[in-house]
Amino acid sequence: MNGKKFASGLIWGVLLGGGYALLKTPHAGKKNREIIKDYADNLSDAAHDMQGSIAQAQNAVTDLSQQGISSAKIARDEINFAIQDFQRTAVPQYNDMQKKINQFHNDMESAQIKFQKN
Question: Which InterPro entries does this chain map to (predicted)?
């Protein structure tokens, strides 16, 4: 559930940031739309991938509990695998999203400085 809230918040953030960028950047409208679309597409893809990874980890834990696995070792190994898989896939996606958000923020600051100079 938290993954859905995060993805929803991320998408709203992208949309609001895009609107702000369109109003504040000195680029032509077409260039602004291309920049915002690229950022939104990249962040949206990363958010969907991360949401899928979270869902897979949740499903693995749910499946384990529903099956009533009697062996603690098997359950532990499968949970460790799900956690490792989540870390392997979601953490790099999160880091990539964070880099893109930081780049977007830097671009916005640069655009605002240019706008203020004009």
Answer: YtxH
How many angstroms from the chain centroid is the CA of residue 7?
A: 6
Q: Domain boundaries in the chain?
A: 2-103
On the 0-12 / 13-18 / 19+ scale of CB atoms within 10 A, 94 is middle
C-beta separation of 85 from 35 below 8 A: no
What's the pTM value of the predicted model, to 2 decimals? 0.36
- Give the closest residue to 55 by CA, choosing from 80, 94, 85: 85
- Residues 83-109 pLDDT 10s: 888 888 877 888 888 888 888 888 888
How many Å apart are CA 37 and CA 47, to the nearest integer? 15
What dihedral do alpha carbons 12, 60, 89, 44 form, nearest 10°? -20
Q: Name residue 29's amino acid.
A: G
CA–CA dist 8, 63 (Å, integer): 26
Residue among 42, 45, 36, 46 at smallest CA distance from 15: 36
